[in-house]
What does this fold into?
Amino acid sequence: LSNGNLSFVKGMETDPQLCSTVPVNLKYEDVKSALLPSPACLSHWLWLSQDQLLCVFHSSSSHLCHILVDNECATVGWTIPLDEPVLTLTQKTGSSGALIQLSSGTVLDFQDSLSPSFTLPEPCVSVRSMGQHTITRAHNNRLYVDRELIADNITSFYCLPHFLVMTSSSHELYVTSAELGFKVEKESGTNTARRLERGATVVVAMDHSVVLQLPRGNLETVEPRALTLVT
It folds into this structure.
């Protein structure tokens, strides 16, 4: 907020409710000098655990901030200066770690400390963790798995624990997995591909179903054969 406090809201899309508002405690002098006088320049919020947040502070340079939250206050424990602006901040699967993508496409691995991990072939608009794999999509619809290009027409994707669900600019839904080597089968009517309405994108996938948003704004649920066969 403009006064430097943090507010927590639940149900933002339907019937939003204010849970709590807590002051931000700038614990150390170096943190105070970094964040003041512009405590509102924080972005890329990410819950690491029930009481830990990561975010990015913007001033003349970017800093990664670690915040501990309790019922009374939010404490900024430390900040780490970064060499470049941050594009994405993503939680790693099954851990309290995170992947930080910088503007050049360099990805940093945060797990208690910050270390370089790898550099993407190009900066990506979406970064997700899927087990030991990192799935990324660039603005030109190129989809990479661990920096390897697997498709160049992907408009959206969603990671399940064992499956990767995607939509394409050719209006098809693809389902693949690490077991299949993330191979994209582009022939409609197979277990891993089916035709979609033009412009449909993935909202969420769960168990054996996938929720799609259509260009008119309405939602549609489909059950891809590749998912129903294993559930």
Residues 84-152 form one domain.
